[in-house]
Design a protein that fits this description.
The protein is of the alpha+beta class and 677 residues long. The protein folds into four domains: 82 residues, Ubiquitin-like (UB roll) (Roll), CATH 3.10.20; 196 residues, Ubiquitin-like (UB roll), CATH 3.10.20; 107 residues, PH-domain like (Roll); 108 residues, PH-domain like (Roll). The chain is 31% helix and 23% strand. The strands form four sheets. Strands 14-13-12-11-17-16-15 form a seven-stranded antiparallel sheet, with helices on one face. Strands 21-20-19-18-24-23-22 form a seven-stranded antiparallel sheet. A five-stranded mixed sheet has the order 2-1-5-3-4. The longest helix is centred in the middle third of the chain and has 19 residues. One of its GO terms (molecular function) is actin filament binding. Belongs to the kindlin family. It comes from Bos mutus (wild yak). One of its GO terms (biological process) is negative regulation of timing of anagen.
């Protein structure tokens, strides 16, 4: 038998600081414990000694020195390695966090600081009614990001109070509730697919969401345009290296907020991180579509992505149209919504699902791979040679283009055959100048071959451009996405074609806008205000009849068609290289870009990737591709874990399918993105 003195010698004093939300000062509690006491027992002793009747279920122990949570309550202090010198804090796991959304609106809600960021973002998206939470993440911007706004506020005569949507009662606690990323095929539509207003049953459907208490559409409508002065203050001319620094702030999805040094009530950015927007559906995704539109809009206005002046005017016209519709009182008047019978809506949705697409063409698509054949002009840039296009007979079949001197020689040997799998396809178009060009950057052993094709008219361009885009992804024109791609390109060209628009009616009703609000500050400086307004109104004639949600989707599609869309940049040093390069990461490829000129050097497709890993000691990412191609690089503008997670995240997202009704495989995500650290 042990005497009481022997027991006392085996025990020791542990000081725990209690982070009590109702107390101004934190209190230190001293407990007498032994190494075989489990974590749950320590918390029980704490609660008994504090002696305050309240719900302590959300509290857990945080170990300051080790920067980790002690969440395994059955583990003993000895197993955790906790000794008398340990600084433990008894604190709530859920704390307030301020999130700036893509539409620049700030929401304040209670978020788990103890679960991994991947799950925390899923809970946040559930509270905000955003499906497909795996496409978003949290970004911690550089210290200058929010300071810039404060300087602007000081110059104003009246102090600006930030408009914060407070969702303090938000149920972001993880649980078995329905994942926001997936839905049943028979789920009742929750938004009107035409104008994005909530359907009659939406308030009941999302009754557990804090948005239902205030207004569940508050995040589904775009914000009024910023003033030109505010835009100018936010605008910064950024090089590729500057853009690379912005992307260093993505949080690690496999660790908790607390483990990454995030403080209570800190401000972070909630953004779409992965540019693969799966299954966008106006019936369910009014908030998601609006936030995507806003992220695209700000990327255009702040020139985070390059576009031509012609494209800038199209984006401006769509913004003007969306702004007008969003302010319309008819759209925001929900009282006139007709009641929708939930069972009827579910049955009609199921009927559409069962009917499927065009079944009669399926066999033909499988057996017959279509081809394109036509006269196009070709140019290969060489030093000291003027840009002269030469006409050839082109034949596009499978994923390759072959060209011949004329049509009669088609059965013989081609002048050259270009394999487009893995190439970069860049539009080179000026509709007003009747220029319809396609720029191809084809990967070869020592870099990229540059080839320019020139089409004669819109229809020819749309067919060949769509075929090139699909071929670059390894798909043929037999793929079901070919015709939609052709139509998408044609509709975008039609928006650009100002000649087809009827003459703009002169009148005050057409001048109710500040044109500088809808274009980037650099573009605004090039034109007089009246001239810019006239150009926007002229372009607006092509989109004036579009409903609100369709206009937002068209804006997103136009954004997706830009050459630089979906590229996230990082500053890296490739193994064996003496200079720094930019690495561009997209949903399907990696691009090595010259940091000085911005010209792509080499492209590697994810489909050709065999394996990738990280040497955590020297922080180097190594990737192996088919045909014995291997690359390795160290990251200079961010931790290599950020880049590693980006690559793994895109591969994870490529495994999603529309038939998936179960929750996402979170373990697979962490396996692909976590590395072996």
């Amino acid at each position: 038998m042990l005497s009481s003195s022997d027991f006392a010698s085996a025990s020791w004093e542990l000081v725990v600081r209690v982070d009590h939300p109702n107390e101004e000062e934190q209190k230190d509690i001293t407990l007498r414990v032994s190494g075989d006491l489990h974590i749950g027992g320590v918390m029980l002793k704490l609660v008994e000694q504090i002696n305050i009747a309240q719900d302590w279920s959300d509290f857990a122990l945080w170990w300051e020195q080790k920067h980790c949570w002690l969440l395994k309550t059955h583990w003993t202090l000895d197993k955790c390695g906790v000794q008398a010198d340990a600084k433990l804090v008894f604190t709530p796991q859920h704390k307030m966090l301020r999130l700036r959304l893509p539409n620049m609106k700030t929401v304040r809600l209670r978020v788990s600081f103890s679960t991994v960021v991947f799950r925390a973002v899923s809970d946040i998206c559930r509270a905000l009614n955003i499906r497909r939470a795996e496409e978003l993440s949290l970004l911690k911007p550089s210290g200058e990001y929010f300071k810039k706004k404060k300087k602007k506020d000081k110059n104003n005569k009246e102090p600006i109070i930030e408009d914060i949507l407070n969702l303090e009662g938000s149920p972001t606690i993880s649980g078995p509730s329905v994942s926001p990323g997936l839905y049943s095929k028979t789920m009742t539509p929750t938004y009107d697919p035409i104008n994005g207003t909530p359907a009659s049953s939406t308030m009941t459907w999302f009754s557990d969401s804090p948005l239902a208490e205030q207004n569940c559409s508050i995040l589904a409508f775009s914000q009024p345009p910023q003033s030109p002065e505010a835009l100018a203050d936010m605008y910064q001319s950024r090089s590729l290296a500057d853009k690379a620094k912005l992307n260093s702030g993505w949080l690690d999805s496999s660790r908790s907020l607390m483990e990454q040094g995030i403080q209570e009530d800190e401000q972070l950015l909630l953004r779409f991180k992965y540019y693969t927007f799966f299954d966008l559906n106006p019936k369910y995704d009014a908030v998601r579509i609006n936030q995507l539109y806003e992220q695209a809009r700000w990327a255009i206005l702040l020139e985070e992505i390059d576009c031509t002046e012609e494209e800038m005017l199209i984006f401006a016209a769509l913004q003007y149209h969306i702004s007008k519709l969003s302010l319309s009182t008819e759209i925001q008047d929900f009282t006139n919504e007709s009641e929708v019978d939930e069972v009827e809506a579910a049955l009609s949705n199921l009927e559409v699902t069962l009917e499927g697409g065009k079944a009669d063409n399926t066999l033909e698509d499988i057996t017959d791979i279509p081809k394109l054949a036509d006269n196009l002009r070709l140019f290969r840039p060489k030093k000291l040679i003027l840009k002269a296009f030469k006409q050839y007979w082109f034949v596009f079949k499978d994923t390759s283009i072959a060209y011949f001197k004329n049509k009669e020689l088609e059965q013989g040997e081609p002048v050259e055959k270009l394999n487009l799998r893995g190439c970069e396809v860049v539009p080179d178009v000026n509709v007003a100048g009747r220029k319809f060009g396609i720029k191809l950057l084809i990967p070869v052993a020592d870099g990229m071959n540059e080839v320019y094709l020139r089409c004669d008219h819109e229809s020819q361009y749309a067919q060949w451009m769509a075929a090139c885009i699909l071929a670059s992804k390894g798909k043929t024109m037999a793929d079901s996405s070919y015709q939609p791609e052709v139509l998408n390109i044609l509709s975008f060209l039609k928006m650009k074609n100002r000649n087809s628009a009827p003459q703009v009616a002169s009148g005050l009703e057409n001048m109710d806008m500040n044109p500088e609000c809808f274009v980037s500050p650099r573009c605004a400086k090039k034109h007089k205000s009246k001239q810019l307004a006239a150009c926007i109104l002229e372009a607006h004639q092509n989109v004036a009849q579009m409903p609100l949600v369709e206009a937002k989707l068209r804006f997103i599609q136009a954004w997706q068609s830009l050459p630089e869309f979906g590229l996230t940049y990082y500053l890296v040093r490739f193994k064996g290289s003496k200079k720094d390069d930019i690495l561009g990461i997209s949903y399907n490829r990696l691009i090595r870009i010259d940091a000085a000129t911005g010209i792509p050097i080499t492209t590697w497709r994810f489909t050709n990737m065999k394996q990738w890993n990280v040497n955590w000691e020297i922080r180097q990412v190594a990737i192996e591709f088919d045909q014995n191609v291997s690359i390795a690089f160290t990251c200079l503008s961010a931790d290599c874990k950020v880049v590693h997670e980006y690559i793994g995240g895109y591969i994870f997202l490529s495994t999603r399918s529309k038939d998936q009704n179960e929750t996402l495989d979170e373990d697979l995500f962490h396996k692909l993105t976590g590395g072996q650290e």
